[in-house]
Amino acid sequence: MTSYFATVARGLEPVAVAELERLNADNIQPDFAGVHFTGDRTLLYQVNLWARTLFRVLVPIHQFVCTDADQLYRGVQEIDWEIHLTPTMTFAVNCTGSNDVLNHSHFTALQVKNAIVDQQRQRFGERSDIDPKLPDLLINLHIRQDQGILSLDSSGTSLHRRGYRPAVGQAPLKETLAAALLDLAEWSPDLPLLDPMCGSGTLPLEASLKALKIAPGSFREHFGFMTWRDFDPELWQHLCHQAEIGEKSELPALIQGCDRNPKMVTQAQFNAVQCGVADQLRFWEQDLNTLEAPADRGIVICNPPYGERLGEAQKLGSLYKLLGDTFKQRFKGWTAFILTGNRDLAKQIGLRTARRTAVYNGALPCTLLKYELY
Ligand SMILES: C[S@@+](CC[C@H](N)C(=O)[O-])C[C@H]1O[C@@H](n2cnc3c(N)ncnc32)[C@H](O)[C@@H]1O
Questions:
Q1: Which domain holds residue 354?
Q2: CA 156, CA 225: separation in Å to the nearest integer?
Q3: Quick one: 104 and 183 in the same domain?
Q4: Does the residue 99 lie in any domain?
Q5: How deeply is 261 buried, as exposed, middle or buried, from its count of CB atoms within 10 A (0-12, 13-18, 19+)?
Q6: 305 lines ligand 1 (CB under 6 A)
Q7: DSSP states of 278-331 as a string?
Q8: Measured distance CA(87)–CA(106) in Å, rounded
């Protein structure tokens, strides 16, 4: 059994725990912006292929006291790097966290690199090259108080980069956050789903992938573990094949998105083609003020603009009021969810909140508001 650490957006730890339970991980323990778990190599590959809400899966390989640059250098050299890295392989180092002394991530990463290449030079007379873009081995150093934790990053690039969405609108949701919002909304594929301000379509697209049991990682060409020394291509191919044969061909209920901006609708449609669900979904141009409910019950979910720039928020008050009025008058029987980063605007919705869940949209603290529409 190997220990793993999955990173996740702040506030979404409980969602990530539930997801890892569904993926049959063992010894699941939530932490700050991440979740510890254990499992074998098959689980590592499965989590990378199937996780919808996680950013990265790290494999911690060493923890040591690390209060200054010397301790850092020595700690890094305590590892026999040949197990993971030969001089013909490239690598890169990512640093997260800090303490009073090691508080400059670029310098800290350089120190880790030096310790590794010095060990290689001593042993082999040659060293690995650095490839910051697509390294064979991506190493993560996390500093927390007086501790340093070195991990191998099995995902490579963040798992929110599914690979199906080259076209993005203004302020698109990260795919991982969209998937998490659907979990928080307790949406299940047998319920109709509508995003009336869909932008580039992230919420309906993530919902369709989930409903059709399409592995979110199946669009990606690369994961970090694919260039590791112990990569098992047969196991990976087998898991991808299993995922493919488990895909469903039809949605059990309608999933739709609309937006008043025709450019956004075109982007959403393009993205749906990219992930092979265009024949299942419907995206169309419509302003909220003329929108009718497409079914007598379902989940209506959206993230309206928050008005982060000065002056914008004031103008948005009427849009939030329109949202509340539309839901109240024309979506009886539905459950509504609105993600917003602006409390004052949320008040303009004018409906009684059934639940509030704090989540982060990037660095911005937001709330997912729930409304039961009778
Ligand atoms: C923050 S974006 C949504 C981003 C989207 N969730 C995504 O992932 O791409 C807000 C969207 O609301 C749309 N919008 C603003 N006012 C609207 C209205 N009155 N009716 C319909 N859509 C509207 C904008 O065109 C914009 O695409």
A1: 175-213+249-372
A2: 8
A3: no
A4: yes
A5: middle
A6: yes
A7: TTT-EEEE--GGG---SSSSEEEEE------STTHHHHHHHHHHHHHHHHHHH-
A8: 22
The amino acid occupying position 344 is D
The whole-number pLDDT of residue 311 equals: 60
- The 10s digit of each residue's pLDDT in 301-338 is 999 998 766 567 778 999 999 999 999 999 999 999 99
75 pocket-lining for ligand 1 (C-beta < 6 Å): no
Three-state secondary structure call for residue 113: helix
Residues 76-96 have pLDDT tens digits of 999 999 999 999 999 999 999
The residue nearest atom 3 of ligand 1, judged by CA position, is 199
Closest-lying ligand 1 atom to the alpha carbon of residue 264: 27
Residue 242 Cα to ligand 1 midpoint, Å, equals 37
Give 213 Cα–ligand 1 centroid separation in angstroms: 27
In a domain, 244, yes or no: no
CATH number, residue 73: 3.30.2130.30
Tell me the average pLDDT across 259-271. 96
For 7-63, the pLDDT digits (tens) are 999 999 999 999 999 999 999 999 999 999 999 999 999 999 999 999 999 999 999
Whether ligand 1 lies within 6 angstroms of the CB of 200 is answered as yes
**pLDDT, tens digit, 9 for 90 and up, residues 141-171:** 999 999 999 999 999 999 999 988 765 656 7
| Cα 197 to ligand 1 centroid, rounded to whole Å | 4
341 Cβ closer than 6 Å to some ligand 1 atom: no
- As a whole number of angstroms, the longest Cα–Cα distance in the chain is 74
235 Cβ below 6 A of ligand 1? no
Does 229 map to a domain? no
Q: Is residue 123 part of a domain?
A: yes
As for how many domains the chain has, the answer is: 2
Distance 319 CA to ligand 1 centre (A): 11
